[in-house]
C-alpha cells in the first residue's frame, strides 16, 4: 500500500516536491504515480525531505506501509496517539 492523500494535500505536496526536483528531468507517469523522474544519467541525487504532521482537523488519508518499512510505529490507543521513529530495519 502506498500513501494516499486528499487531493488538496497531494497537490500541495506534489508541487513542492516538483519544485525541489526541478534540476532533474521528469519522466512519464506510471499509473497513479505521477511524480516520476529519469535519474539514469546521475550518480548522485539530492531528494527533498518530506515530513508529515497530523492534527485533529486532518482529512482522511492513507499512510502506506511502503513508507513505513524502515520505521517503528507505536500506537497509543488509550491516549489517541500514533508515533513513528527511524528503526533502521
From TrEMBL:
Which PANTHER family did the record assign?
ASPARTYL PROTEASE AED1, ASPARTYL PROTEASES
Entry-linked SUPFAM superfamilies: Acid proteases
- Which Gene3D superfamilies does the record associate with it? Acid Proteases
Pfam families per UniProt = TAXi_C
Spell out the protein name for this chain.
Xylanase inhibitor C-terminal domain-containing protein
One GO biological process this protein is involved in is: proteolysis
| GO MF annotation, one | aspartic-type endopeptidase activity
Organism equals Salvia splendens
The record's listing under InterPro entries reads: Aspartic_peptidase_A1, Peptidase_aspartic_dom_sf, TAXi_C
Its taxonomic placement starts with: Eukaryota, Viridiplantae, Streptophyta, Embryophyta, Tracheophyta
Q: Which residues form the Xylanase inhibitor C-terminal domain?
A: 2-59
